[in-house]
Predict the structure.
Amino acid sequence: QVHLGESGGGLVQAGTSLRLSCVAAGDAFHTYTLGWFRQAPGKEREFVAAISWLGGSPDYADSVKDRFTMSRDNAKNTLYLQMNSLKPEDTAMYYCAAQPLGKLRGEYDSWGHGTQVTVSS
């Protein structure tokens, strides 16, 4: 497992942007498939985006496609989620996750503690 720590959440107005970061402590970051998930109060955790250890284009949930952009910097052991045109329904706790050699929408073994994003209307 790898230790993950998210940052960058906050309270913003609808239509604005935030960038979340997730730093991983450990070796072989480049061999991990990485994901972002979110959980709103009273709702189940849902998939937001993922990027494979193999590279290639990230996979996005339909609800965030064309608004969110996920990227990774293997040299910095860091994962990013650029969130544009935020909506009140994007309000949730956001978690990053990692899985060695994993599939984009497969199981993830390592999870961060989350960062809160609140979007006001």
In short: The mean pLDDT is 96.
